[in-house]
Amino acid sequence: MSMAAKANTTTKKAKANGNGKANGRLMELRLYVAGQTPKSLAALANLKKICSEHLEGQYKLYVIDLMKTPQLAQNDQILAIPTLVRKLPQPIRKIIGICRTKTKYWWA
Fold this sequence. Notes:
It is a single chain. The protein is of the alpha+beta class and 108 residues long. It starts with 26 loop residues before the first strand and ends with a helix. It is built from two helices and four strands; from the N terminus they run E-H-E-E-E-H. Strands 2-1-3-4 form a four-stranded mixed beta sheet, with helices on one face.
């Protein structure tokens, strides 16, 4: 699997249905990884699965490989990898690890 700087996603709008969906708002997600390690690949796979279940294409996903562009870690204060950052909608939220969680607060 090739990890690109920007994952190919759609941004169609969908109606909220009470299942923790994004309520029609576009989410901007950034997944910080270090190369194509097993943890990085697992984080990306888990994130894509969670997004397909909860966001129905209402997101933009950027995969940032810190082996190629380490200077980008400073902007979001990344101290551990893999780290998922939800930039929009605010407030900014972070999950450190391989993104197994499906916490409700994340999508709120």
